Amino acid sequence: MFIHTDSVTAYIPQRTPIVMIGGILEVKDNITRTGLQIAADNLFVEDGVLKAPGLLENMAQTAAARVGYIAQQENTPVPIGFIGAVKDFEVFEFPPAGAFIETTTEILSQVFNATMVAGKVTLNGKIMAQCELKIFINP
Predict the structure, then answer these.
(1) What is the pLDDT along the chain (139 residues), one digit of tens a residue?
(2) In what order do the strands lie in the sheet with 100-111?
(3) Spatial separation of the C-alpha atoms in residues 120 and 126, rounded to whole Å
(4) Strand partners for 135
(5) How far is residue 39's CA from residue 133's CA, in Å, rounded to a whole number?
(6) Gap between the Cα atoms of 21 and 13, Å rounded
(7) Contacts for 107-113: CB closer than 8 Å, 24+ residues apart
(8) What is d(CA 136, CA 64) in angstroms, rounded to the nearest whole number?
(9) For residue 62, which of 5, 6, 46, 68 sits 20 to 30 Å off, Cα-Cα?
């Protein structure tokens, strides 16, 4: 399954130019995978590469897409969430404009409206960035 940008905005609150996922590749169990073709004119591309804020936003939107996708499947309103904390954010390499990155988030724990997820961005199987995100969902 790949849901392109024109419909992926049904699952996330962000709108252009902040949309940092191109589509959902998979939502299964505690895992969500998205893809993004990095446009040269992307807001977070600088000197031909996607910079750290874009990588972080990409992971956060992947986590948000899961919540929105499930809400849509259950015919309930898509809730709004926000990042409460970022832990161990590491960038190993900045992916170039034009590249197709895949991002995976995995739910580590969930307590009330707080969810801890591990996120990682890969390019051709190589990890570009990773972190843990604590995300709060507005009930």
Answers:
(1) 555 555 888 999 898 899 999 999 999 999 999 999 999 999 999 999 999 999 999 999 999 999 999 998 899 999 998 999 999 999 999 999 999 999 999 999 999 999 999 999 999 999 999 999 999 998 6
(2) 23-28, 31-37, 100-111, 114-123, 126-138, 80-91
(3) 10
(4) 83, 115
(5) 25
(6) 12
(7) 107/30, 108/132, 113/137, 113/138, 113/139
(8) 10
(9) 46
Q: Which two tokens stand for residue 35?
A: 């893809």
**Which fold would CATH assign to domain 8-137?**
Thiol Ester Dehydrase; Chain A (3.10.129)
Pair 35, 28: CB distance under 8 Å: no
Q: What share of the chain is helix, strand, coil (3-state, %, to 5)?
A: 20, 45, 35
Ranges of each domain in the chain: 8-137
